[in-house]
Write a structure and sequence with these properties.
This protein has 557 residues and is of the alpha/beta class. Helices cover 36% and strands 16% of the residues. It has a six-stranded parallel β-sheet, sandwiched between helices. Strands 15-14-16-17-19-18 form a six-stranded parallel β-sheet, with helices on both faces. The structure holds thiamine diphosphate and magnesium ion (MG). Thiamine diphosphate binds next to helix 16, strand 16, helix 19 and helix 21.
Amino acid sequence: MAAIKAGLAIIEALRAEGVEYIFGVCGTTTNSIVTELHGRNDIHFLDTRHEEGAAFMAYGYTRACRKPAVCLTTSGPATINLATGIALAYKGRAPVIAIGGDVATDYLDRDGAQAFDLVNLFRPITYLSRQAYKTERIPELLRDAFRTAMSGKRGPVFVDIPRDLMDNQTIDDSLIYPPSAYRAVEGRMQGDRQAVRRAAALLSRAERPVLIAGGGVIDGDATAEAVALAERLDMALIPAYGHNDAVPNSHRLYIGIPGNRGAPEAMEAIHRADVILALGSKLSQHSTHWNNAVINPRTRIIQVDIDPHEVGRNHPVEVGIVGDAKAVAEQLLESLDASRGSNPAWRAEIEALAKKRKARLEQEHSLEGDPMMPQRVYPELRKALPRDCMVTLDAGVAPGLTYDRLSFELPGTFFNYSGHGGLGMGYGVGLGTKVGRPDRPAVSIQGDGGFLYTSQELNTAVRHRIPLVAIVLNNSCHGAEKAQQKRNFAERYVGVDLVNPRFDRLAEVYGARGFYVTRPRDIAETVTAALALDVPSVIEIPVAEHFPLPAKTPAGH
Ligand SMILES: Cc1ncc(C[n+]2csc(CCOP(=O)(O)OP(=O)(O)O)c2C)c(N)n1
Ligand SMILES: [Mg+2]
């Protein structure tokens, strides 16, 4: 038992959780914490050029390596700058622990400089938002924060610490525990046995079963079990929108993803299904439109989710199971009717749909134009990106073509805005993925609009040697919005056309490498070369304006 400096106690509490990086920007109210990192090799302050970049990086980091991520920012506007990235962690179910050093308690509630009600500001975008009011209870507050962030449905938390609770204060080091003492670090939640039995019976009798693999399959490590179920029952293997990496895309039963930017073939299979197993999926707006455009009202649904609030939330279910995707998939595999044979007719339909999708995408090889059509980039990326490459997508129409066009084989290799929709997240999140999994190659794909939202983090990439390859698809406009103005507002264009710097040159100014590619045949080679360089780089590819219509759903919506 020893009294240690309060700042050091916070660092030790984070170390007990295995935290290696703290993402943030310095400030007066956090100096008694960050200075405790001086000279340490086990934990680093990864300083960004904007707090939003820190939150985006934290999101990418934890999604890539599955460890909790920590942000540390100073009072008022600095912590407010985290909000967009914390909202992304909220939508993307990512355990980001945001610690805001606040002004001293004497300055609170009397309009003090940089004093704001941060706890309420963060409340709707976190699972827990609290202010410390007593120094010796800070370790307990951090334990609550990690328990909340890491248990069940994961998500972000906000901890506000007024500076007078830290500066020149001490904390007893016996208050720092290992995580196993304050949260369940082992075990998976099994599904109710009766419900599993009913689900297994339904699946065993199904004629046209479809497995929709959601984010819960990735978070629950359930890819192998999902594939085993699909193979056992000849189920179409379809990731939920944006979770393309939940199942190996080279699998013969894989048809693509549903949704606006997805594959009509996948939506057709879902519409044809008599039974859907939604494994770790919300069946949310993106995948199903919240109506019967994709899911047929006659289809019987088995839904498995770790969060009871998601079961039956968007579509009526025949069997709802609360549990971990891997544990429940294992239970289902054990409970299936052993006499069930193969289902060649449905398998043939699935394979035909998969073939149809491939043929549709193959045609894009021959698309011509100068500048090239954005679709033309993707066959070249398919050639160049290694199997274990992590891909982060920004919002925007040209990057969004990825959803139906790139192929993923390993869980934890695809990152996107997860229903958050914030333009500019791509570059920062991509940097975070590379920090989280330095052993895997990493690219981010963004438009010209999105890249300039956060391109100052090129400086972070260079200083901290983060070899992310940023691919900028430059159509000199906010394409996604220009499409709306073209289609729905009689081409009355306002605020959508952009004049940009050369992005390859911008990269060079920052000390990164820059490439400029105008011919499709040079894309694969350039991407391969950039990845091999292992330094931060930007590849600008000028592309034509292109405004695709949303993929048609089977019900014609
Ligand atoms: C933070 C934020 N601001 C604005 C928008 C609205 N928005 C969505 S896409 C888009 C344009 C994207 O342009 P770009 O990154 O160049 O991609 P493109 O659509 O041209 O391929 C805009 C402004 C948003 N989604 N998020
Ligand atoms: Mg653009």
